[in-house]
Amino acid sequence: MDAYADPPGMPDDERMTGVELKTIREWLGLGGDWLAEYLDVSPRAVRHWEAGKRLIPDGVRLEVERLEAVTAQYVAAGVEALTDARDPAVVTYYSDEQYRQAYPEETWPATWHRRVVARIAQEVPRLVIMSPPNDDE
Questions:
Q1: Which of 44, 56, 85, 107 is most buried, taking the most CB atoms under 10 A from its CB?
Q2: Could you read off the pLDDT of 70-85 as tens digits, one per residue?
Q3: CA–CA separation, 66 vs 60, rounded Å?
Q4: CA distance 50 to 21
Q5: Residues 42-100: pLDDT tens digits?
Q6: DSSP codes joined into one string, 41-61
Q7: Do residues 41 and 54 lie in contact, with contact meaning Cβ atoms separated by under 8 Å?
Q8: Domains of the chain by range and CATH?
Q9: Angle 58-82/110-123 helices, nearest 10 degrees?
Q10: Mean pLDDT in the chain?
């Protein structure tokens, strides 16, 4: 847990609260288990942070803010790429397996991708959201 150690003298009133962590995690479309694996902590640690049973280390707050910033970059890039398209369309995925087939290098879950697509859809009128073509067809 040293990777997320608090700075010396970290005041408790500047900490991320459990409800903030849960709200941001859900807004990003990330499951608690995914976040735990990403942070290299136990799922129980994430549950305890979100329930307010344990203080959230400041390093965790910083990492969650980084995840927010990266997600915002993906959304902005999608909006920019699709805004002036004649027939804007995007593919998203039902499962992590399906997402990994399309993007094997990605570590994000499919739920995150769907959330990014939903945020793009808020900004791009007439955006068509599709599933990948079925290989059996």
A1: 56
A2: 999 999 999 999 999 9
A3: 10
A4: 6
A5: 999 999 999 999 999 999 999 999 999 999 999 999 999 999 999 999 999 999 999 99
A6: S-HHHHHHHHTTSSPPPHHHH
A7: no
A8: 2-130 (1.10.3100.10)
A9: 50
A10: 92
Strands (DSSP E) found in 2-107: 89-91
Give start and end residues of each alpha helix (H) in 83-135.
96-102, 110-123
Is 89 strand, coil or helix?
strand
Dihedral sign of CA atoms 99, 104, 108, 109 in order: positive
- Provide the residue type at 65 as one letter: E
> For residue 135, what pLDDT band results from cuts at 50, 70 and 90?
low
Q: How far is residue 25's CA from residue 19's CA, in Å, rounded to a whole number?
A: 10
How is residue 68 written in tokens?
């927010």
In angstroms, rounded to a whole number, what is the distance separating the alpha carbons of residues 111 and 67?
14
User: CA torsion, points 7, 11, 12, 15, in degrees to nearest 10?
Assistant: -50
